[in-house]
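Hey, I was hoping to borrow your eyes for a little while. A protein chain has come my way and I'm curious about its shape. Take your time with it, there's no hurry, and the full record follows here:
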Amino acid sequence: MNQISNPMPVVIGSSAGGMAALKELVAQFPENFPAPVFIVNHMGAHTTGEALVRVLNESGPLTCVHAYNEQTFKSGHIYLAPSDQHMLLVKGKILITKGARENRSRPAIDPLFRSAAVAYGNRVIGIVLTGYLDDGTSGMMAIKRCGGVCIAQDPEDASYPDMPQSVISNVGADYCLPIAGMGALLSTLMKRELPESGPVPEDIVIEAKIARRVLSDLPSVEALGDQVPYNCPDCGGVLWKMAEGELLRYRCHTGHAFTSSALLTQQTEKIEETLWVALRMLEERQNLLVTMSKTESKQSSSSISQRANDSQVHIDRIRAMLKSTDADAWPPAPWLSEGV
């Protein structure tokens, strides 16, 4: 397939359960599919994604490759975001960046969707598949505001329904259907006659530039929302709140961004991390006090032993918190890497 001057890009986001979902979707693409396909599947920084590339190449006739920076793209090809890097679109090429994590993820879905909306307006077709939490919702909202098409997997068809359900609830998907029906739908959408895209809303442009690291300063973030008394759990910076309909999002001036759900989950993980540090320090303090009590005078030893006992009370409390199995207190990670 040749490079196309005015593509109708298909951008896809998936997370937990993504390998099976993407395999089923890619199997439906015909050999002459007239558009480039871009995929972000959440994965851990330690994975390579080679397994997913191999599976997608084996699943259908289209060639799947890991995207690289400044790569020109072609119709009839699938481009997968590499691990620990964002994949963005500009006119005619792909950008791969080490920008700040969004919704605790890198690669994240929202930056890809947002950049596609800025570059290609109403020609973009966005698809959100299975996954935890709500990455992809804000990006899909950008696609919708720029006139593109929003497709969500039917939550009842998804292994993990959070992500598509969030799109349906907060954006209002143009199409909600099982994966089995998406191939035929895409073929129909490719035949549309489209008017010229209108202007892109300024807030979407600003966020797309932040993801490219073109902007990273206070004025650019202040233009997006209001400062709030929370700190970024990733870098400690001040956060600004942005409201998109009923969806609340937060962003710091260095580029980290979170939906409310992602922010709460990250805060919870930081609390757990802090508790483990506190437990280690209290146990070390208790061990030191026990050692000291063996060498001190009887009077001093009694006082030191009491302080060691007091430490044990705090140790027991922290251990009880860490052993908690309350799912609301300790939510799952937002993706399952599935070895990709």
